[in-house]
Amino acid sequence: MRDAFARGHRDGSGGTVVGLHRRAPSLVTIKRPDEVARMRHAGSILIGILEAFETALRPGVTTAELDRLADRMMRDAGAVPSFKGYHGFPGSICASVNDEVVHGIPSSTRRIREGDVVSLDIGCIWQGWHADCARTYAVGPVAQPAALDLIDATRRAMESGIAAAVVGNRLGDVGAAIEAVAAQGGYGVVRPFVGHGIGTAMHEEPQVPNYGRPGTGLRLEAGMCLAIEPMFNLGGDEVYVEDDGWTVRTADGSLSAHFENTIAIGESSPEVLTE
Ligand code: MG
């Protein structure tokens, strides 16, 4: 199991294995209010980019153009794109179309077409603090009506996971809440890629799986900051990493959706920093 943005490769069994990115276990850090405030500002920069995507994501646009838009907006806001150069990733965003799950590399030859299902993942660093989020969009009328249900369910799963991320609950409660939404719709839950702690690094402890058993795992505390990011497939849960070393695709070619928000767990409720 890896962070959703950790690099890996396909092993002989068709599963995915850890490549470059394996961190030693470490303590989960508790953020002070002034630190959360910096993450909130990083999140506000991403919110502006998501709004720009709503306009820019049209048939005919290339994923490289979306990448340039986001990169410019981050830098104009005094932030740095956290994906660019991360283990060599070439883009400032991940743009994953249709059966691509996550980590699609922006390309000047990848032109969005009507009916595409497009997941856009963005992260930035502002004054040393990170925020990370993703949305999936249907571009115009989709060929498969079930795509809209998949997108809706993945968003609702993210929201259910966030609602479960409260003081006193455990990580397994978050994963179980997400997994329950997938089960209702019969969607495949992508398991090799997971959410993560976030702060002065994009990927911190703990890992936040999109499945789990209620009442198990790390107990959540105020000041923990998490990126909660379900990835659901219209078909089975199997995925593989393409030969480019990054792009994750569904094994059965089915559509996939991905939503992500960065949250700070407060004393009484989770605060979403990227919505
Ligand atoms: Mg993430």
Write up this protein.
The strands form 5 sheets. Strands 1, 10, 11, 12, 17 and 18 form a 6-stranded mixed beta sheet that branches. Strands 4, 5, 7 and 8 form a 4-stranded antiparallel beta sheet that branches. Helix 1 runs antiparallel to helix 2 and helix 3 (146-164) runs antiparallel to helix 4. The protein is globular. The longest helix is centred in the first third of the chain and has 24 residues, at 33-56. A hairpin with a 6-residue loop joins strand 10 (193-197) and strand 11. The protein has 4 helices and 18 strands. The protein has a single domain, classed as Creatine Amidinohydrolase. The protein is of the alpha+beta class. The structure holds magnesium ion (MG). Magnesium ion (MG) is lined by residues 4-5, 132, 196, 227, 229, 260.
Helix content: 25-40%
- Count of individual beta strands: 18
Mean pLDDT: 92
Query: CATH H level: which superfamily?
Result: Creatinase/methionine aminopeptidase superfamily
CATH topology: Creatine Amidinohydrolase
The helix count comes to: 4
Note the quaternary state here.
single chain
Separation, N- and C-terminal Cα atoms: 27 Å
